[in-house]
TrEMBL record:
Record's keyword terms, sorted: Coiled coil
Coiled-coil annotated spans: 89-139
UniProt KW Coiled coil keyword: yes
Domain of life: Bacteria
UniProt protein name: Helix-turn-helix domain-containing protein
Length: 269
């Protein structure tokens, strides 16, 4: 069963946007890509959310650290957000609450170190986010491949990338010479980045001891057969089954923590 965990203090409109972000995120990295127009389009039409309203909600989420803006999208490219893990958010709220109580009890000069420490922590977090944003702006939608490798042979790069994984059947270079046209065909159909992402997803599933999928492909069958790479695309059945399984495992852990801590969060089916 799939669950969504959200703060209790969200309005109906805010919950709708939070739900869309949560459901579309990568549950390994907690990152999600979305444009404002997409959020408006995907939201419940009965709420009649405008782009300006959605923008205000997103800014509120960022200010309250429910999400972090990792990469600012432009010219139709989606913005990349990272959703703050619930247990981290609970700790953050608890720390803020404790700090506020201390300040209320004693507003003397002895409180200045607390204020300075809080400000230093905030500035450090901003710097870390800024550095991450700069890295992503330089490398967004790219893969770990340099220009020389790309110019030399992208087919061979994908072949070697496949062989670097533990959850696959590796092939010899002599086989690559005979079968590399299958890789070229797949690149034309899916593109380099999507192929590499699908390879990563397959490897995650096969090597994850908590997931049942253990069928090992060789690269040529994986790229050619109809039940191969297509199962590991964003809409692929096996990839979505894997995400649900991993999500349920995480939610079970969070539910246990929530029960023991009594945090202000709700779990919706």
């Amino acid at each position: 069963m799939r669950y969504i965990i959200a703060p209790l203090d969200l309005t109906t409109e805010e919950f709708e946007i939070y739900k869309l972000l949560y459901k579309s995120m990568d549950f390994e990295t907690y990152q999600v890509k979305y444009t404002l127009n997409q959020l408006v389009s995907d939201s419940n039409s009965m709420l009649n959310l405008s782009k300006a309203k959605v923008n205000r909600i997103i800014k509120k989420f960022i200010s309250e650290q429910l999400i972090i803006e990792i990469y600012k999208g432009n010219r139709g490219k989606p913005t990349i957000y990272e959703i703050t893990k619930i247990d981290n958010l609970m700790k953050l709220k608890q720390n803020v609450s404790e700090t506020q109580m201390k300040l209320k009890r004693n507003e003397s000069e002895t409180n200045k170190p607390h204020k300075i420490n809080s400000l230093n922590a905030i500035e450090k977090r901003k710097r870390n986010v800024s550095e991450t944003q700069m890295k992503l702006k330089r490398n967004v939608n790219s893969t770990p491949i340099n220009d020389k490798e790309k110019d030399k042979d992208i087919n061979k790069y994908i072949f070697d990338y496949w062989n670097s994984k533990n959850g696959v059947v590796k092939s010899q270079d002599s086989t690559f010479t005979k079968e590399k046209d299958k890789i070229s065909t797949a690149i034309k159909k899916y593109g380099k980045d999507i192929i590499l992402k699908a390879i990563d997803r397959l490897d995650k599933a096969v090597t994850n001891p908590n997931y049942y999928y253990n069928f090992k492909w060789n690269i040529f069958k994986f790229l050619k057969q109809s039940n191969g790479i297509s199962n590991w695309l964003d809409e692929g059945q096996l990839w979505n089954d894997y995400k649900v399984k991993i999500l349920n495992n995480k939610q079970d852990e969070i539910k246990e923590k929530r029960t023991s801590s009594g945090g202000a969060y709700k779990i919706l089916e």
